[in-house]
Amino acid sequence: MSTTKKIAVGALAAALGVTTLTACGGDSGKDAGDGGTKPKTVTLVSHDSFNASPAVLKEFTKQTGYTVKVLKSGDAGEAVNKAVLTKGAPQGDVFFGVDNTLLSRALDNGIFDPYEAKGLDRVPDAVQLDKDKHRVTPVDTGEICVNYDKKYFADKKLAPPQTFDDLAKPAYKDLLVVENPERSSPGLGFLLGTAARYGDDGWQDYWKKLKANGVKVADSWELAYNQEFSGSAGGKKAKGDRPLVVSYASSPPVEVLYAEPRPAEAPTGVSTGTCFQQTEFAGLLTGAKNAEGGKALIDFMIGKKFQEDMPLQMFVNPVAKDAKLPALFTEHGAKVARPHTVAPEKIAQNREQWIQTWSSLVLK
Amino acid sequence: MALPVAFFAVFFAYPVAAITGRGLRTDDGTWQLGRIGDVLTRPDILDVLWFTTWQALASSALTLLIALPGAYVFARFSFPGKGLLRAVVTVPFVLPTVVVGTAFLALVGRRGLLDELWGIRLDATVWAILLAHVFFNYAVVIRTVGGLWSQLDPRQEEAARVLGASRFGAWRRVTLPALGPAVAAAALMVFLFSYTSFGIVQILGGHAFATLEAEIYRQTAQLLDLPTAAVLTLVQFAAVGAILAVHARTVPRREAMLRLVDPALTARRPRGTGQWALLGGVLASVALLLVLPLGVLVQRSFDGGLGYYRALQEVDAGGTFLVPPAEAIANSLEYALAATAIALLIGGLAAAALTRRAGRLVRGFDALLMLPLGVSAVTVGFGFLITLDEPPLDLRSSWILVPLAQALVGVPFVVRTMLPVLRAVDARLREAAAVLGASPWRVWREVDLPLVRRAVLVAAGFAFAVSLGEFGATVFIARPDNPTLPVAVARLLGRPGDLNYGQAMALSTILMVVCAVALLLLERVRADRSGEL
């Protein structure tokens, strides 16, 4: 940056009456690497869906002395892409929210430093997708599945569909709404689920059948779930007329949680044979100003307290074996025995092409 | 002149150039300009370009058609509740696009109001997009054109009538030339807004329609295809530049000297059936196009009685925020005030410099000031991300970044609103003051400022409104411990469950009311001051 520009900025700052441009920046403007004082803040960069109870974050401060600052930067894909763009000068210390569909992009671009978290022995090997190098640590899992409107199928005396095969049957014609995989992560998850189920050769034929069976495509989860789906509170208001929607296995408990008064039974159910597993990871950003604090935060995130707080905050499942699910989940959630999965490398190689093929098959 | 130039260099040109450069250069620094041709021959990209252009043209034409009679009514008639109505028509302009989209879906979507009444469905058609653009931009025309119209001396038209001109002839020869620049400026703004429309197209257009802006967002944020995004950014730059060039050519260089008068003297009660019918017609169009979608929103926010509003005061209403959503209101207002101050300072200085000087360079600067309207918020946001990352400019986590980004969009409004009025100030007044020994600053303060105070307030209103509803840049940089209203609404809409949906509607309603109140206060200030003109 040239001197003239610096002068210009200085003049600008003065003129605007902004005496300290970098005020409120916390530790962002200071480099902790000079043996100076230990920074007191650790910054967590995440997507918009990140949530944690203030009480739990306070607990972390009590244990370690660090205050957590959360920086949300868009939906999951956008947040990862920003982390890639700011490689080397990251916006924070820890990144949380890269999932298995985007993992390869993050790892190939080298935005994470390896760190083996304390307490990783309580996390199953199946979700540790970077077990050799520990550049990322699994934090939670969730399933993307078809949800159904219980009332609709009870009124019609029709059994709700349970598998991908069912969805293409004439009995369920014109009932399903899915999201555009190009613009929505549940949409992408559902597409990957079909690719896992029918293989590289079979999934296109399956989608032709779905199209013939009247599948509707919405651009975002919000539109599909809150406008088109007949089983959700928002969809009921908007008089949605599709009793099947691609959403999450945790959506029914959420419908119960946010209903006034709370119903005894969830209004929606989960078609457990249509699920694709998402795993979300946290990693230490390369160039972090407070790497020590970052490591402590990653340890804390797979600790029991944080893991048990997550379900009702982000509607996901804990990865730690010793974390208990809240009653709401055990009563209204679905147990998905065998969700479909696709290896991250395979997703990275094929994602764009699958999406393009899907577009020309389904949207044209 | 120096300050606005520096502001734009640091917060606009530098970030945008950086992100575009990253897309057009390989890692070893060689330029890959061949990529431009590759991208521009792709049929999907050509489709996007074509749609962007024609829908913007159609939106501008439709908006002018519907809003110009409204501008006349606001300028020339006085009727009870006019101030309130003026605030009402400005509200749509500051609503986050998420909310506009949702409201319009409730109106023209499946089982929306129109569907229930007459079986009309417009969702995923271009009509929904066009209507939403009119809804959004109505205020632009009312405030730019109506603001000037109300200050034109009606006696000039009367003089022409006395000299034998027909009513239409007098209007065509006297009023129309005086209004020309303002109409052109308004049309230009509406075109730019529609051209770069993003949220509305995303929600109402479905996958059938994508504007250039939406495509840039997709290529950058979702696909990380920087080369394609960079080419599209350049295309948008070129297109906006071309629009501005056309504008500079068609609008007469020298805005005529206008005799501006106090608006209070020009407005009178409508007389005769024709005028009453016009007033009635305008009120009806406002009710149908602007009030109805807002009404649907309000109605939905009260579906649960006051329950949704009560929920807003709880911190843990779903844990979406670290503070109660209600606090977002205060945050939004603080940001908007800061952004307004910055935009007025930069825009005012720029407008003053542009009035003072002529020549090619200055005209070029004038056009440059408009560019932020035509460059995607996504490009600017990503540019901020990769450029403002080192001291003394590590602003990425500083609160000031939000008002700065919002001011960037506000400045063009300030300039557009103030320039026609400033140029219309008789230069001889300034010369006289200078001859009598006043410094340039003093001349500006004693001569220009009193005459343009009204324009300043209109500009401030615009900047404030833009900031309050601005979503693209804010969502990029707002922190969860102090979200703004639009960001809060978007987050609530993005979560399942009745309570979140209802809270989003309730917050949108509050946002609406806050805007209306702020704008009403502004009207009040204006009314008090107008006597000094």
UniProtKB/TrEMBL annotation, chain A:
Pfam families: SBP_bac_6. Keywords: Signal. It comes from the Bacteria. GO terms for cellular component: outer membrane-bounded periplasmic space. One of its GO terms (molecular function) is thiamine binding. Residues 1-23 form the signal peptide. SUPFAM superfamilies: Periplasmic binding protein-like II. GO terms for biological process: thiamine transport. PANTHER family: ABC TRANSPORTER SUBSTRATE-BINDING PROTEIN (PTHR30006:SF2), THIAMINE-BINDING PERIPLASMIC PROTEIN-RELATED (PTHR30006). This is Thiamine ABC transporter substrate-binding protein. It comes from Streptomyces ficellus.
From TrEMBL, chain B:
This is Iron ABC transporter permease. Residues 49-245, 329-522 form the ABC transmembrane type-1 domain. The lineage of its organism: Bacteria, Bacillati, Actinomycetota, Actinomycetes, Kitasatosporales. The chain crosses the membrane at residues 54-75, 87-107, 127-146, 182-209, 229-248, 276-298, 335-355, 367-388, 400-419, 455-478, 501-522. InterPro entries: MetI-like (IPR000515), MetI-like_sf (IPR035906). GO terms for cellular component: plasma membrane. It comes from the Bacteria. Belongs to the binding-protein-dependent transport system permease family. Keywords: Cell inner membrane, Cell membrane, Membrane, Transmembrane, Transmembrane helix, Transport. GO terms for biological process: transmembrane transport. Pfam families: BPD_transp_1. It is found in: Cell inner membrane; Cell membrane. Its main location: membrane. It is a multi-pass membrane protein. It comes from Streptomyces ficellus.
